[in-house]
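Hi both,

Apologies for the delay on this - the queue was longer than expected. I finally got the zinc ion-bound model through. Below you'll find the protein sequence and the ligand SMILES exactly as submitted, and right after that the structure tokens for the full complex including the ligand.
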Amino acid sequence: MPSRLAGLALALSLTVAAPLSAAAQAAPATVITGATLVHPSKSGADALEPDATVVIQDERITYAGSGRAAKMPPGSTVIDGRGKFVIPGLVDSHVHFFQSGNLYTRPDVADFNAVVPYAQEVARNKARLDATFRVWLANGVTAVADVGGPFWNYDVRDRAAATAAAPRMVVAGPLISMVDRPQLDLGDPPIIRIESREAARALIARELERDPDFIKVWFIHRPGDDLAAQEAIVKAAGDAAHAAGKRLAVHATELVTAKAALRAGADLLVHSVFDAPVDDEFIALMKKNGALYCPTLYVMGGYALALTGQWQATPEERTGADPEILAAMDDLTEIPPEKIPERVAKAMAAKKPVEPPAVAMANLRKLEDAGIPVVMGTDAGNIGTLHGPSIFREMRMMAEAGLTPLQVLRSATFTAARTMGLEGRTGEIEAGKLGDLVILDANPLEDVGNLAKVHRTIKAGVVYDPADLMKSLEAARE
Ligand SMILES: [Zn+2]
């Protein structure tokens, strides 16, 4: 098998390179004993493997299986896994680091510049990256996909790659958009209006200089827009992306635009179809492209809750969100009325109950049943959707939509490895995989809520205590 040969080649190269990597080789192994492993790629009784041992050394899992057969390297750090459950590290397939989740982060939607200038908000988000990285790890997330932002998104990826206490990261740069968002333009806009195929190709050429993981299109279709002309631009973007070996990610939330996006070559739909039941044609297009489907069930409700004064922190957010952002979530009650945008004031007065997206939830169940690869994603950073603990809101909604806990877990691990371009390297607990794991205090297959009971997060073989990570944030705040 090619992977075995690759493994052999790696082993040989490690031997040859031993003098150079002496420090790494001297790092003690981490051994988890007596734990139940949860295998998201399996099903039925095979998904749970009780009384198992995992050995992680040099950033990789070197053994996973029966405790009796395990060899413990001398000097290993042992974690008692009795009563605990080990899953692969979680992946959020849809986040944005240029946004924080607070009220000030999307002035194109709700303009609070009179309270906190947008430039100050973006500067905060840049300065706070190391803390945001730790928040993700504290919630069991070892990899994220930032599917669109300013050109400095590429610097965020570089920073994450150079930081141990950070999730693995893939990125897209500025969005190729059908509409303008001047309120977000501080000189390096996250959203760029593109009106021709030539302009799309020119922007992609600029992005390719920074080696994007995805080219992202914001496919906004309003009444009166020429759908065929829009599709031609998306196809030009898809063709240019594919010619460069890059994948095309598309925001297309209606059935007609989602189908157009797929015809244009989309590899990842970053949202659900929200407006109509998906049909056989849609499923056939998804299968033809081998496209991934990221439901983002919570994000619109997050906006609605936060911008009507109804947002309340979940228990996971109270302990696992950036305290700076958490504190700002109550600001709406303290902002003087004259500084509240009219639209928001009206919505606050109406305080309509926020309903879950019923059509999208039915679509998720249908697509899961049809064998479409679903990847969990939150759209974190949007107003009301906080980096880190929002994943637990999202995964609960996926379960409410009718997915089993195992299907939810699979979407956030085994399948999500494809978002990261890490298929075969993460997303399962097997020897040879990267050492990205989460140790839970309870069985996630009994209740998806148990995914929030993170005892330890392990990324690239380094073990993190969520409480310590969160404490390190508070220290950074003072
Ligand atoms: Zn998004």
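Main takeaway for now: The two ends are 54 Å apart (CA to CA).

I'll put the files on the shared drive as well.

H.
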